[in-house]
Amino acid sequence: MGSPSKLLPEVQAHYGRLRHYVGGEWIESKSEETLAVMNPATAREIAQVPLAATEIVDAAVAAAQAAFPAWRETPPLERGRKFFALRTLMLRDADVLARILAQDQGKTIEEARAEIQRAVENVEVAAGIPSLMMGYGLEDGAAKDIDEEVVPQPLGVFAAITPFNFPLMVAFWFLPYALATGNTYVVKPSEQAPVVWQRLMPLFAEAGFPPGVVNLVNGARETSEALVDHPDVQGVSFVGSTPVAKAVYARAGARGKRAQCGGGAKNFLVVMPDARMDHTVAAILNSAYGMAGQRCLAGAAVLAVEGAHDAFLEKFRRAAEAMRLGYGLDPATDMGPVVSEASRARIVSYVDSGVSEGAEAVLDGRTAKVPSYPGYFVGPTILDGVAPDMKIAREEVFGPVLGIMESESLDAAIERINAGPFGNAASIFTQSGAAARRFRYAARCGNLGINVGVAAPIAYFPFGGARESFFGTVHGQGRDAIRFFTQHKVVIARWS
After folding, report:
1. pLDDT < 70 stretches in the chain
2. Which string of DSSP letters, residue by residue, matches 179-231?
3. Which residues are catalytic?
C-alpha cells in the first residue's frame, strides 16, 4: 500500500471552538462542555464542538419560527432564484469546502469534491420548485359547478440530524426542499464532523436567504433530542444507525411529528458468471472501499453465483492490494482513514470475529500503517468463505471490509439478500436481461443497481431504503422530499 510523500499544510489546521448560527448571526455557546473534533488521518484535534444548551436550541427554533411567515409568503419563483445564487456560491467555494471535509471526515479530496457536487445537484433541483410544488385540480369534480383542487403548503420549522460520513450531502437530501417549499430549517450536524458547516452557513446569507430561514446548532445526543421534542418543530430528517433511526422515528411519532429516518445497511453485490469481470471488479472496489467503506450504500458482501467466485476473487484481490492508503488531501491517496479510533477498533473486532468463525483473511488490513500519519487507518480487507450465520455476514461493519460468499443460483442469492433485516441497497453484475429483471423484481431493497456498484440515486429521484434501513413513508430528494415538507390542502368550491 502506498502512503503520502510529505506532510501537507492542513496537518496543522485548527478551527477553534465552533459556533452556532441563529437568526443570521454567529452565537457563542453558553455551555462550557465541548467535544474534540479530530482529524482522522493525523489523530490531532482540529476543532472543539460545543454541546448546545437547551436555550440555544430554543433560540434557533424561535428564529426559524419567526422567519417562517414572511418566507412562506415569498413566491416560489423568488425562493427558487435564491437557490441559483446558492449554487453559484457553493461552486465558487467548492475547493475550500472539499478540503475542510477531507480534514474533518477523513475522505479523499476527490470523494469530498464529489460530495459537494451531490449537494449542489439537490440545490439545482430545488431551484425548480415552481413546477415541483404544483398541486392539481378538477373542474366539476363532484358535480356540476363544484371544483376541487389540492394545494401543497409548507408547515413551519423542520430539522435535520445528519451523520458523520457525508456532513453536507445528506443534509442536502432534505434542506433545499424544505426551504424551497416555504419552510424554515435547523441543522444539527454530527459532532464528529461539524467543521464544514462553519464555512457553509454564511453562503445562505450571501445568496439572499433571510435571517432565521436556515439555522445551525452544534451538539450531540441531547441537542438532537431537544430538536425532536421541541413543540414548534414540525418534522425531522435523520440518517444514522438503525437503532438510533428507530428511536428517533418513535420519539418523533409519539409527539405527532413527521419523520424520515435512514438506518443501517448490509448491502450485497451479486456477481453472475457472465459478468464483465474487469468492470465488475472496478465497480465493487469503489463500492467496498470508497469512503473507507463508511457509506450506507457501500458493498459489504459479494454473492458469487455458479462458479464466478475464483475469477472474481483473484482479480479483486490484486486490485485491492494496489490501493494506496493515506491522508485524503494527498492526491496520491486512494483510501483515507476511518472516522475515529473507536470506529477502527470496532471494524478490527468484526474482522477478528470473522476469522475466528472460519473466514479466511485473503487480504488483511487490520495492522495497516501510514508513515507520518498516526491516524485511524484500516486497510482494504477481504474475507473469503464467509457463511450466512457468521456475525460479519449479519451485522453492519461500516468499514473497508468485503466478505465473499458463494451462492448456488441467482434465486438463492436473492433469498439470502431478503433473509437479512436490512433493505438499503443491492446490486447485480450480469449481461443477462432476464437475470437483471428477476433481481429487480424480487430483491427487497430500496436502491438496486444493475452493473452499478453504488446504487446512489441522483437528486431527481428519492434516496430509497426499506425494512430496517428506513423508517417513514417518503424519502429524501426529489418528489418524495417535496411531499414530506408540504401539507396537501384539499379545496372544494361551488360557484353557481
Report:
1. 1-12
2. HHTT-EEEEE--TTS-THHHHHHHHHHHTTPPTTSEEE---SHHHHHHHHH-T
3. 296
